[in-house]
Amino acid sequence: MSRIAVFFAEGYEEIEALTVVDICRRAGIEVQMIAVNGEQAVKGSHGIGVQMDAAFATVDLDSLDMLVLPGGMPGTRNLEAHQGLMEQVDAFYRDGKYVAAICAAPSILGHRGILQGRKAGCYPGWEEQLTGARVSMDPASVDGNVITGRGMGCAIPFALAIVAQLLGQEQADRVAESIVYPA
């Protein structure tokens, strides 16, 4: 079974994070919601608190297939400030494992040199933070082991791109049909 972690920091964009969790779980992917601040619940940028599955320090990250970084403010900055998470993002990328980010969070990948020469998208106005990327206006972009999405309105295509990479396009299409998402 494929295993991913979605990382939550205070001020995350609720729909971006929870859409990934929901769609990936529907597809049969094991998803862990991880609090980088160690709290049991993390509040999003619109004041919605969500109960976490685990704290960063307690997770066996080596057993995961993908790390997912939702956007939102100040959630994106709070994720980037977490040294342990940034070390894991670098290690996953270096080892050829998947890293995924949506909205403002692809800026983290840009700052870390991960987007050099890769197709990537982000929230409008953040393009200069995608250092070295070939900027895409697609709702979701996949380039090798890097998946990016543009923003909250692109959360479903972003989540379906994750499913397609881990379980194949047929499974992504089945999930899309089951949620009445237009093909």
Structure in words:
- This protein has helices spanning 14-27, 75-80, 83-94, 106-111, 155-167, 169-178; strands at 3-8, 30-35, 41-43, 49-51, 54-55, 66-69, 98-102, 119-120, 134-135, 140-143, 146-149.
- Helices cover 33% and strands 22% of the residues.
- The strands form three sheets. Strands 5-2-1-6-7-11-10 form a seven-stranded mixed beta sheet.
- With 183 residues, it is an alpha/beta fold.
- The protein has six helices and eleven strands.
- The protein has a single domain (3-178), classed as Rossmann fold (3-Layer(aba) Sandwich).
- Helix 1 packs parallel to helix 5 (155-167) and helix 5 (155-167) packs antiparallel against helix 6.
- It is globular.
Q: How would you classify the helix and strand content by structural class?
A: alpha/beta
Number of strands: 11
What do the pLDDT scores average to?
97
Examine the secondary-structure arrangement and name the CATH architecture.
3-Layer(aba) Sandwich
SSE order in H/E notation?
Answer: EHEEEEEHHEHEEEEHH
Q: How is the biggest beta sheet arranged?
A: 7 strands, mixed
Strand content: 15-25%
Shape: globular
CATH superfamily: Class I glutamine amidotransferase (GATase) domain
Q: Please give the alpha-carbon distance between the first and last residues.
A: 25 Å
Q: Over all CA atoms, what is the radius of gyration?
A: 15 Å
Please give the order of strands in the largest beta sheet: 5-2-1-6-7-11-10
Helix content: 25-40%
CATH class: Alpha Beta
Low-confidence stretches: none
Number of domains: 1
Briefly note the CATH topology name: Rossmann fold
